[in-house]
Amino acid sequence: MSAEGIPSEWYFITSPQEVSWSKDSVTKEVATYGTNNPYLNYGTTKLRSLTLGNAMVEGFSDAKQVEDNVVQLEACMRMIIEEGSGYAAPFCWKIYAGSKSYGTFIITNVSVRETLRDMDGKATRAFVDVDFQEVAPY
After folding, report:
1. Res 43 pLDDT > 80
2. Predicted confidence (pLDDT) at residue 131 exceeds the cutoff of 90
3. Is residue 81 a contact partner of residue 88, using CB atoms and an 8 Å limit?
4. Is 23:8 a contact under the CB 8 Å cutoff?
5. Is 60 helix (H, G, I), strand (E, B) or coil?
6. Number of C-alpha atoms within 13 angstroms, CB side, residue 42?
7. Which candidate, 52, 60, 130, 133, has a CA 20 to 30 Å from the CA of 21?
8. What dihedral angle (degrees, nearest 10) is formed by the CA atoms of 80, 83, 85, 90?
9. Contact 128/86 with Cβ under 8 angstroms?
């Protein structure tokens, strides 16, 4: 796989203030004629959705710009083309908090809040929210 321009790893300056995930199931209520007790068709469970919220990208250093850090985070969302097959695929990431592993995910959304800027308008402090979708472990 070609991963030109995609960083091999990416770190937050501080831990995310909010970590949340959800896992849904595929269910369907089947209305049955002549009864008030419908059947519930339970399918499978979906993969986990994970959100790392309110994480500081930078802000401790004087005159440290965060533009490049944010661009690198956005680069983690790029699709890659497998040279042999020609198929496009999202880049998959293993998400860790210290030694705890959340699993393997793709990035589905990056939201950035710039809170400080220098005299040129470049961000010097930013907080990000990153949404992930778990991928199957194959």
Report:
1. no
2. yes
3. yes
4. no
5. coil
6. 3
7. 60
8. -10
9. no
What is the chain's length? 138
Structure tokens at 52: 């790392």
Mean pLDDT of 97-119: 88
**H-type alpha helices, the chain:** 67-75
Amino acid at 62: D
Is the four-CA dihedral 73, 54, 103, 41 of positive or negative sign?
negative
CA distance 102 to 21: 10
* Kind plus residue range of the DSSP H or E element containing 106: strand 100-117
| Maximum Cα interatomic distance, the chain, rounded to a whole number of Å | 72
Residue type (1 letter), 81: I
Cα dihedral 69, 4, 74, 9 in deg (nearest 10) = -60
pLDDT tens per residue, range 75-93: 888 888 878 888 888 888 8
CA angle 15, 19, 21 (to 5 degrees): 150
Q: What is the pLDDT of residue 59?
A: 59
Rounded CA-CA distance 24/40 in Å is: 15
Q: What angle do CA 7, 11, 15 make, to 5 degrees?
A: 160
